[in-house]
Specification:
- Strand 11 and strand 12 form a beta hairpin.
- The two termini are 19 Å apart.
- This protein is 38% helix and 24% strand.
- The chain has five helices and 14 strands.
- A six-stranded antiparallel barrel has the order 1-10-13-12-11-14. The protein has a four-stranded antiparallel beta sheet with strand order 2-9-7-4, with no helix packed on it.
């Protein structure tokens, strides 16, 4: 588009020189060149500020690394890659033998403590009757009472362990956290399930929908606001531009983040200026139905501010021309 504007101006100059018979001298040519530089520079400067475009944009999807609450050998994998799943559907199963044994052991302890409590309560009642007839001492009653309290405390502890054991047993079947699908499933029976956070056994993609984020230079930041109109083109859909709107402008980027550490920040180490992250949403997502738009698709995003809207026309033309280039150029 830049080339077309320059060639259009050159063509206009040729017409002016021929129709109006302007003499071709070093002064007239220099004047035409300076005027052309000023006009073209003014157009692109204002367009970059008031109708900015990001060529660093991408389609994202929410993914969850699936880990298990308990460790063990995987005995069965229920899912295949990219098959739709509902929340709670089983993904894979871990060997539950030790967890069944632990639950049985805990329940046996509960039965033992319950029987002890029932026996001690009867003994307490019997000794209280004997105490009334002076056949038992208060010391014997206190001893039984202490044993009863200890048995009740042990029972409560065993009941808590039973809940943990039941939870661990239920956790041997790992289930889908939300609606979505598992992708690139390489987990096989015989492998050991990991419980380390963020090092999942399966990559799960949520069905909450895809998001479009674009990174803009810092200069036009004041002309990018939520609610502004936008347009998006995708590398996988050449020749098409989709209407959108800005829904979120992040108030921070990586270069401005500080984390708790004993090492002092050194701004001179990371000299990259950083870009403003902007989230846009398509106004009519139904247009993308049956269109190839996998997560990770690169995109171009143009935002149209209400100031100097006349330059939005040029930006729209440039955006569409670059989208058509995707038919020929890749990457």
């Amino acid at each position: 588009m830049e080339t077309i504007i320059i060639l259009s101006y050159v063509a206009l100059c040729i017409i002016v020189f021929r129709v109006f018979k302007v003499p071709i001298t070093k002064w007239t040519v220099t004047t035409a060149f300076i005027i052309g530089m000023f006009i073209v520079g003014w157009i692109f400067l204002y367009m970059a500020m008031y109708q900015p475009v990001s060529r660093v944009a991408r389609v994202y999807a929410i993914t969850t690394p699936i880990t298990s609450q308990v460790t063990g050998i995987v005995t069965k994998v229920y899912v295949k890659g990219n098959e739709p799943l509902k929340k709670g559907d089983p993904l894979y199963k871990i060997d539950d033998t030790p967890y069944i044994a632990k639950l049985k052991q805990t329940r046996a302890e509960i039965k033992t403590y319950t029987a002890d409590i029932n026996y001690l309560k009867k003994e307490m009642k019997r000794y209280e009757e004997l105490r009334k007839k002076n056949y038992a001492s208060q010391e014997q009653i206190d001893s039984i009472y202490k044993q009863l309290r200890n048995a009740e405390e042990s029972l409560r502890h065993a009941q808590a362990e039973e809940k943990v054991a039941q939870f661990n047993l239920d956790s041997t079947v790992v289930r889908a956290p939300t609606d979505g699908y598992a992708t690139q499933v390489v987990l096989k029976p015989g492998m050991k399930s990991r419980i380390t956070p963020f090092q999942g056994n399966v990559a799960f993609v949520s069905s909450q929908g895809k998001q479009i984020w674009a990174a803009f230079p810092q200069a036009p930041a004041r002309y990018i606001k939520p609610g502004y109109k936008a347009e998006v083109t995708f590398a996988t859909i050449p020749g098409h531009a989709f209407f959108a709107k800005v829904v979120q402008v992040n108030d921070i980027f990586a270069q401005g983040a500080l984390s708790p550490t004993a090492t002092l920040s050194r701004p001179e180490v990371d000299k990259s200026p950083g870009r403003i992250l902007v989230k846009v949403k398509l106004t009519d997502p139904e247009l993308l139905k049956n269109m190839p738009l996998p997560a990770g698709t690169t995109a171009h995003v143009a935002v149209y501010s209400p100031e100097w809207e006349i330059f939005a026309i040029i930006r729209k033309v440039i955006l569409r021309m670059q989208s058509w280039e995707n038919w020929l150029f890749h990457g």
